[in-house]
Structures are given as C-alpha cells and as structure tokens.
Amino acid sequence: MNPMIRRASERAMRECFLVIKSGPTDQGSRPMTGPFTTPDLSVGTDGRPKVTIWNMGTREVQGVQTEFASIQAGLAVTAENRRIIGYGNLANIGARSSVEVTCPTPWHKLSFADVLLVTVHHPELDPVKVAYDCLQDRRVGQMNYAWSGMYEGKWASNSEKMAIQIRPAQQGIYRLKVFQEINGRMPSNAQIDWTMAPHKAVFRWQQHYANKREDWLLSMADNNKMNVTCVVHHLDGTEKAAQSLSGSVMRL
C-alpha cells in the first residue's frame, strides 16, 4: 500500500490523532522535511507562548497535555538541553477540531535565536513516539525560524500594499523578498531580493539606484507582526528632503 494512503487510513481509524500542524495542509504525515515554520506556534505580547492543537481523530479526546520548553541558541535540541517554560491546562478537543492552549508563564529568552519547543500528547490514547523532534513526531512543534513566512500589509502614508517573503537559506541566513504595489497591482516578481542575516530582531540594508538611495529596516514586533521603515534619499541634486515610509505587515 502507498505510504500516504496507509497513513491516511491510520488517521481515519484513530479516535485520537493529535497534530501540531507545520502548515495549513498538514494532515499529520511524518517524517517530513524542514524547516518547521508553522503559524500555529506563536508568542503573545505578554511573552506567553501559545499553540493550536488539532485532533484529527474520530472522537473527542479529553485531558490532552501540553508542555512548553526552550532550547538555548546554539545547543542541540535534546531533552538534556531543554528548559521547561510551563505546562498548559488540560485540553478537551473534539473530533476534527482544534483548540488553542496558552502557557501560564512567559518565555524569558536568553537570546533572540532561542528555540521554542511544544509537545502535546495524551498519555494513554496518543503518547509521544519521538521526543522533541518536530520532523519525526506530529505531536511536537518547534519555533526557531521566527522570521520565516509570508507577510502582507500597507504603507501608512499612502495605503499601498506590500508583501514580504522570508525563507531560511542556511544556518542563520535568510532570503528576503519585497513586493510593492504598482498601479494598483502586486507584481509577481520581487522588486527587492536579498540574502542576509538579521542582527538580533532587525534586518537592515540599503538599496542603491541612479537617483536615490533607500535605507530599509525590518523589525519584529512579535512573532506575527513586523514593522517596516524605508527612508528615501534623493540623489538628483534637487535638495529634496528625505522621504520616510513606514508601515507594518502581518504573518499570513
């Protein structure tokens, strides 16, 4: 039998089938390839992590347990290196439904690049099989690419749309693309395409053109919102004042 069909059949027969989704279309098939960049893991403005847990099984499951833990940047993702942040309240999840569980205590990071790990399980109906490995176990979620994703928003000054796409290129390096509305339409090709590393919670770079220079700054407000600033310096000798654009984009 095809492995995908076999896994789908397994899911259809299980009363409890817990999943932390890696994306909207994730049905819980594991192993999978990384990176794990799910929007179902996030950190609120109060610093408390939260997770959306799915039960794709056939019946409601009661008493789902949730553990929130952290791995210091640079350390291997193992049980020995984890620091427990807290445990969520026991959750009851209906069949083919989801709930959001919030950690009762804030996450105090040691650095911006620390890793958030969330594990959900039912000790009897759906125990963890591969601890702290989000690519092997559907009950494990990992957030260590806080930048990665697709964001959309508008400039505050002119309400024109913009979109930003960020993907990990290699360890600590990201590929960043910026799309800006032109005559009411979003282009299919990025106007800006850079590969770079952020400094703490900030991306900063310059764009040079024949008659102007743009100073760009992207900063993370929280895991789902990014503030964007672009200061335009005109170089055509007209002594125009620098034009400053600002706005925010939200993770899709």
Distance linking N and C termini: 36 Å
Strand order of the largest sheet: 13-12-11-10-17-16-15-14
The whole-number mean of residue pLDDT values reads 87
Strand content: over 45%
* Largest sheet, strands/sense/barrel: 8 strands, antiparallel
The helical percent reads under 10%
Enumerate how many helices there are, as a single number: 1
**Total beta strand runs:** 17
What order do the SSEs take from the amino end to the carboxyl end, as H and E?
A: HEEEEEEEEEEEEEEEEE
Structural class: mainly beta
CA gyration radius, whole angstroms: 21 Å
Shape: elongated
Low-confidence stretches: none
Structure description:
4% of the residues lie in helices and 46% in strands. The protein has 252 residues and is mainly beta. An eight-stranded antiparallel β-sheet has the order 13-12-11-10-17-16-15-14, with no helix packed on it. Strands 4, 5, 6, 8 and 9 form a five-stranded antiparallel β-sheet that branches. The longest helix has 11 residues, at 3-13. The radius of gyration is 21 Å and the shape is elongated. The protein starts with a helix and ends with a strand.
List keywords for this structure.
252 residues; 8-stranded antiparallel sheet; 5-stranded antiparallel sheet; 1 helix; 4% helix
Give a quick rundown of the structure.
This protein is mainly beta and about 250 residues long. About 5% of the residues lie in helices and about 45% in strands.
